[in-house]
Amino acid sequence: MAVTLADVAVRAGVSAATVSRVLNGNYPVAGATRNRVLQAVEELEYVVNGPASALAAATSDLVGVLVNDIADPFFGIMASAVQSEIGEPVADRPGPKLAVVCNTGGSPERELTFLTLLQRQRAASVVLTGGALEDQSHRAALIGRLGRLEAAGARVVLCGRPPLTDTDFPAVTFDNRAGARQLTEHLLGLGHRRIGYLAGPQARTTTRHRLEGHRAALTAAGLGGDASRLTVRGSYDRSAGYYGALELLDREPGLTAIAAANDTVALGACAALRERGVRIPEDVSVTGFDDLPFAVDATPALTTVRLPLHEAGVHAGRLALGRDEAPEGGVLVCPGELRVRGSTAPPRDA
């Protein structure tokens, strides 16, 4: 049985008129009340139906772009590329469209809420960027939301995110495992044997894939036994790199290299090393990941793996508008490229 406006009103403890005002946005509603209504909408998975169903099935000129953190250049570069592509009119092709960037803050609940809201706005397309949360209940809910968007006429594209199995949503993804393995093999090739790793947050696909690549290189070199002790987990920000590097130095005074989960974490690690009087790379080498714009301007310039963030965003934007055909098998895997710079060198005792 279809969920009605009245059902939402009962769940939220407000009148049907208040629910209508919140959904239509045509009358001021107190913030706490609005949040209760939106939470009820989310819990009941309410979508406008009845006489409005024909309108709801039509699509607008809106494209939703979901990011974890728009202030993070990793997401900002992809979102900007998507927006530029869908905003360009092309003769005899769909477009231009209006991009709406939805900042989830890494919250799975906000991700689902934004998808419901985008369906209500009859979004023409939705692009989901960045790694996915490894949680089966969230995955099931996500597939349900995306399926309803697709059924309403929206195109769904994954960008920088692994494909969702049992779905046919096209995905432009990165080979994080191979990139991380390249970086660790570079350090091993220089002679490093005591290598610390600053991992990202638990239960994220990007975190797991990069850590797996790092450990695969260590195992192949016969050094996998100490990998857990020399791994510190944190977020993908500078403070995680700063405090994580200090912890690694305390765990292993003989540390000669640190591989960071991304460039921002690597910068934090460099700051901690300098504070301890540790020289980079003379005493400890440091690597990042992603090759964000600031990596080449760091002191010393950061050895990292370049991911084609802009190119992936452009392709995702073209897929979102139907300008490009979906890749063969539905998945385009973009390899990373090792960029060796001044932050890595052979250890002193090599």
TrEMBL record:
InterPro entries: HTH_LacI, LacI/GalR-like_sensor, Lambda_DNA-bd_dom_sf, Peripla_BP_I. GO terms for molecular function: DNA binding. CDD domains: HTH_LacI, PBP1_LacI_sugar_binding-like. The keyword Transcription regulation applies. Keywords: DNA-binding, Transcription, Transcription regulation. The keyword DNA-binding applies. Residues 3-57 form the HTH lacI-type domain. PANTHER family: LACI-RELATED TRANSCRIPTIONAL REPRESSOR, LACTOSE OPERON REPRESSOR. This is LacI family DNA-binding transcriptional regulator. It comes from Streptomyces chisholmiae. The lineage of its organism: Bacteria, Bacillati, Actinomycetota, Actinomycetes, Kitasatosporales.
